[in-house]
Amino acid sequence: MQRNLLMEDTKKILIIEDDPDISEIYETWFEGKGYTVVKSSTGLDGASNLLKERFSLVIVDIKLPYKSGVDVVKFLRRSEYSNEETRALIISGFVNDIEEVEKLREVYVLEKPAREEDIFEILNK
Fold first, then answer.
1. What share of the chain is helix, strand, coil (3-state, %, to 5)?
2. Cβ-count burial 85-111 (b if 16+ within 10 Å, e if not)
3. Of 18, 33, 76, 117, which has fewest CB within 10 angstroms of its CB?
4. Chain centroid offset of residue 106 CA
């Protein structure tokens, strides 16, 4: 069964972060540069958003309720969901503790606290 995308938007960012303060900071940065932002506070909700829309970038924390950030990126890379080419950026304070991150293909990693210029450098690659 072919999946219908509700919206194709090259200026859309998905932020999957359970800390509302951090999520709000990222949202402010992207909206200030003309991006549309979709936010999720759990890995499961974030994965659900990947079924509905395409994104320019998915920012995900590693430690999330219901589905880890690593699991979300693995889900993102499954070709049947049409998001396998989407850039993925893991931003976490636990990056060094997660060996699975190194096994993920085409994922960028930044440690918290991430700087705005570092995030936009990855987005513009």
1. 40, 20, 40
2. ebbbbbbbeeeeebeebeebeebbbbe
3. 117
4. 12
User: Residue 51 has which token pair?
Assistant: 């079924």
Structure tokens at 91: 């931003």
Q: What pTM value is reported for the model?
A: 0.84
Cβ within 8 Å of residue 112, ≥6 positions away: 22, 91, 92, 93
The token pair at 93 is: 């304070």
Q: What is the mean pLDDT of each run of 10 residues along the chain (125 residues)?
A: 42 94 96 95 93 90 90 80 78 71 77 91 86
Cα–Cα distance measured from residue 18 to residue 123, given in angstroms and rounded to the nearest whole number: 21
d(Cα 31, Cα 12) in Å, to the nearest integer? 10
User: Which residues are 38's β-sheet partners?
Assistant: 14
* Cis amide prior to 65 (ω within 30 degrees): no
Q: How far is CA 18 from CA 64, 84, 85, in A?
A: 6, 23, 24
In the block, residue with structure tokens 């003309």:
34
- The two three-digit tokens of residue 30, written as one number: 């992207």
